[in-house]
């Protein structure tokens, strides 16, 4: 039987706020346990939440970026359950009246087609702390640094039909939230993680199959693999005459399998109700408009502009705009050297290779965009050759410094002075009289290959610094 | 000295009659002598009190006295007090030393008041007789076989017994006004949002409100001025200037319209209570007030509504007491579930457990619409009743309690009967309105109170009328014989 895969994603994005969603404690990854947890995060008796205004603005920006309905009134609710890393015994979240409503997100798939994925809504909530089971024999530790960190949970409709689509969706969300600068998007640190609801149904069937929810997937690669392996499992279960259970499963990357997290015979009753300690969030049009006015250029718009204004291919424009820091870097390089294609080649070629090699982010690159632009300018104006440019790039990357100063200091300038090249040419002709004889007596079609020999000799004599175009020109005349 | 009101103490301190240290020590001695029987205090903070009194005295000598500088008071043990046990009357928090001050505690300290200790209360403010306290019940100074009311029974009894001239308290369904009535003192529940709830241990967040208990309306006005004010730490606290309540007390009440709800003034009213309230209303009428009938058509739904909303909120507010981070933890839990179940089972009392169970039930899937949502709808109807009634009246009057103080054990067997205690007081909490109770007579030697309910943020009008009434009568000056001026 042919199966159709149905996927819906819930993406949790940690917002890049200075302080927590309901307290003044700092949000800072990787600190000593419980050093970023105040009385409110510890849920001491008598403490109360106060909504961090920064958080509202960030959620609204996300909504505006995907052209969603923005709720003029949203309500925080309490989701009640006991867990040691949930200090209040409830999570403050949104249910019936979330801050961001419906939207449609367009995905560009690799084969060039477009795919629409509907957003059900996006809501604000607080993160829980962490239980630490390793370091304490027979006991568990609780770290509440993360408790109360602001999250926006983005919930899609079950509109995706393959793991590739799911990854593309997740990448799109990642790109939007990092463009908006509302999240650092660091999946390895849990700043962006997702739950995938996966089900299968016979191709053509309207009714949805029973879904399994795969929790806490924290990399693009794992999303793809977790879904693929879960789909295989479900097909096996059904093919063996069984039924898929509605349950929460965990993806184990080491074993590349999903397994049930906790058996829930009855659904948890979270007893949601509006949090009486928080007022409904009410937004007026002027506030929403001011945020709309503050939105940066988003990936889709930037991609279009890169294609049009810089004459880049769709592929290049796509690659360069996926992450805002890279796009910003590229623009500076292109504007500096005034050659958008050469700039694209350098950014996606030499620069990206170096970043990958050292596994660092563009923001940590030792070479500024202006410097790279100046380097390319020197290639364009003939000061340095392509080969020298690569040498120069290496030098600037490892040692720093200015483009022109380094060219000067390291003697990287190519020789374009026709007098100097002429005398070198004369010397090469004098030193290789036999080859000159051969060349001159050879037919036109053979000469081309032989000509290269003389160019090479002149370049060698100039220690690679002669301008090849100039060498070509003068050699032609002399021979 | 112990018979002095806050106003008198301020005058005496100003004129140098005695120092803050003198009255503080004198009241501490009195507490140590009398409170072992009354049990109105859970903790005494003697050292801090004497230090605060000394610094108040030196501030006064520097000419920097302000507000309540040097006046001894007590805090209900529901307000977090830095470095001091803050128990909420529960075994759960018997070992909890608050690491921070509630905003109210800070405000009152900033006004120069001297806190003598923390007063006893029903566990987590759940009770109308003080019999649910882990520290044992408070006795009513008027008759030690009787309850002081609750949940702020400790604050009311301490003021009635002249152990302190004023105390802070909280009121979720009548917890200031009912004990004030039963102990013959004056108590004010301000408008919801008038006093910060930050650092006040939550019972039912949408109903809880802190207020003062003292002997006179004037003293309540002075205390409230120091307690109230906007607090950015409490999202439900309203950013509105605090009026000088004590400066409008002498305004004339000529033409003041006092509304009498027909749902309360009918055949069901306790006849002796009704007579005393009628007498009080006649005094006000003679002073120029008009009496008008008002209609509160949903008054009979207030108690059932309250006993859905309050338990719902408390069931989740009390989830944080899980034995994990602070408070009581059971011995040798065998696993996480055991830790939760036994810590909570062993440390919460019956009334708290009852309300957590009821609250959990009314919020459960399948019952939410029938109970919680329905209760919220009725709550809006109750609010609307008052808005309509306040078109005809400026204040609404009624008894504060069903009757005088009852005996220990009299109502503990039947929670429903105990819940009826709050008949007159609950609607003001549901509607978020200011309300107060003041003594208006004695029945067989036991005090009874009259209640005023005001419009939102019209505490000043309410206090003005109460002060005028107290200028005309002397019920508020009556004291239980054992604890009066003689002793």
Output the structural class of chain B: alpha/beta
Distance separating the two termini of chain A: 74 Å
Mean pLDDT of chain A: 92
Which assembly state applies to the chains in this document? Answer: heterodimer
Strand order of the largest sheet of chain A: 5-6-9-1-10-11-12-13
Would you tell me the structural class of the helices and strands of chain A? alpha+beta
Order of helices and strands of chain A: EHEEEEEEEEHEEHEEEEHHHHHHHHHHHH
Q: What share of residues are in beta strands of chain B?
A: 5-15%
Task: Please summarize what this structure is.
The complex is a heterodimer of chains A (479) and B (487). By secondary structure, chain A is an alpha+beta fold.
Architecture overview:
- The complex is a heterodimer of chains A (479) and B (487).
- Chain A has 479 residues and is an alpha+beta fold.
- Chain A contains 15 helices and 15 strands.
- Chain A has helices at residues 53-65, 163-179, 220-239, 285-294, 299-310, 314-321, 324-337, 340-358, 369-380, 386-399, 403-409, 418-431, 433-441, 444-461, 468-478, and strands spanning 3-14, 73-74, 77-80, 90-93, 103-108, 114-126, 130-132, 141-143, 150-156, 192-202, 212-217, 247-252, 257-262, 273-274, 281-282.
- In chain A, the strands form four sheets. An eight-stranded mixed β-sheet of chain A has the order 5-6-9-1-10-11-12-13. A three-stranded antiparallel β-sheet of chain A has the order 4-3-14, with no helix packed on it. In chain A, strands 2-15 form a two-stranded antiparallel ribbon.
- In chain A, helix 7 (324-337) packs across helix 8 (340-358), helix 12 (418-431) packs across helix 14 and helix 14 packs across helix 15 (468-478).
- The termini of chain A are far apart.
- By secondary structure, chain B is of the alpha/beta class.
- Chain B has one domain: Amidase signature (AS) domain (Amidase signature (AS) enzymes).
- Chain B is built from 15 helices and eleven strands.
- Chain B has helices spanning 6-15, 20-38, 46-61, 103-110, 153-160, 177-183, 217-227, 271-286, 302-317, 336-347, 350-363, 369-392, 415-420, 426-431, 459-472, and strands at residues 41-44, 72-76, 114-119, 166-171, 186-189, 209-214, 257-261, 290-294, 395-399, 435-443, 446-454.
- Chain B has an eight-stranded mixed β-sheet. Chain B has a three-stranded mixed β-sheet with strand order 1-3-2, sandwiched between helices.
- In chain B, strand 2 (72-76), helix 4 (103-110) and strand 3 form a beta-alpha-beta unit.
- In chain B, helix 2 (20-38) runs antiparallel to helix 3 (46-61), helix 5 runs parallel beside helix 6 (177-183) and helix 7 runs antiparallel to helix 15 (459-472).
- The longest helix of chain B is centred in the C-terminal third of the chain and has 24 residues, at 369-392.
- Chain B is globular, with a radius of gyration of 21 Å.
- The mean pLDDT of chain B is 96.
- The A-B interface holds A 39, 42-51, 78, 80, 82, 84, 87-90, 142, 269, 271-273, 276-279 and B 79-80, 86, 88, 93, 96, 98-100, 102, 197-202, 204-206, 232-236, 312-313, 315-316, 318-320, 322, 324-326, 336, 340, 360, 363-365, 368, 372.
